[in-house]
């Protein structure tokens, strides 16, 4: 069987790329299930192998505020403290909820926050410390996919 040099080098490159992908998947698997300290290493390997970030590295958090002033103050502080890369302030939402046995309806302002998943706990603690509500709504969901340049900007803006 005759294999030209070019064919071997192409096979070698493909093998190396596939090996990097397998290694990054293995490290990511171990970091999620077994060794939390490897999570950032796993995410870097996935980024190198695929050109995008791993699912769950970033999160979107949501907070309701009683008015525009409180929303703006919290949003600016989150960005200044590097707990968020971006906060969208969404005015004029109506919330209907049960509170202390009564059905309530309030006009509120919604904050939609983009951050690293590792910052959600600190973000929630800060919000609880300054929010005027007795029980502040702070919820988050992992971002599974996103525009790679935007996700890179998010990572660059909010340090680990």
List keywords for this structure.
Alpha-Beta Plaits; 4-stranded antiparallel beta sheet; 5 helices; 160 residues; 2 domains; alpha+beta
Task: Provide an overview of this structure.
By secondary structure, the protein is an alpha+beta fold. It folds into 2 domains: 7-50; 58-157, 2-Layer Sandwich (Alpha-Beta Plaits). Helix content is 47%, strand content 27%. The protein contains 5 helices and 4 strands, in the order ααβαββαβα. A 4-stranded antiparallel β-sheet has the order 2-3-1-4. A hairpin with a 2-residue loop joins strand 2 and strand 3 (102-116). Helix 1 runs antiparallel to helix 2 (39-50). The longest helix is centred in the N-terminal third of the chain and has 29 residues, at 5-33. It is elongated and about 55 Å long. The model is unreliable at 1-6 and 48-52 (pLDDT under 50). The chain crosses the membrane at residues 19-38. Homotrimer. It comes from Callorhinchus milii. Belongs to the CutA family. Pfam families: CutA1 (PF03091).
């Amino acid at each position: 069987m005759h294999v030209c040099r070019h064919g071997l080098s192409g096979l070698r490159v493909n093998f190396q790329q596939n090996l990097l992908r397998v290694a990054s998947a293995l490290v990511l698997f171990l970091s999620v299930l077994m060794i939390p300290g490897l999570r950032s290493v796993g995410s870097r390997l996935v980024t190198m192998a695929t050109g995008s970030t791993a699912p769950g590295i970033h999160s979107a958090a949501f907070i309701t505020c009683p008015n525009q002033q409180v929303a703006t103050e919290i949003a600016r502080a989150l960005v200044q403290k590097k707990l968020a890369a971006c906060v969208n302030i969404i005015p004029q939402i109506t919330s209907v909820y049960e509170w202390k046995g009564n059905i309530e309806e309030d006009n509120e302002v919604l904050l939609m926050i983009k951050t690293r998943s590792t910052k959600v706990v600190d973000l929630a603690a800060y919000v609880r410390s300054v929010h005027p509500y007795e029980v502040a709504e702070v919820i988050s969901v992992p971002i599974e996919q996103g525009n790679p340049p935007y996700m890179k900007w998010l990572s660059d803006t909010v340090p680990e």
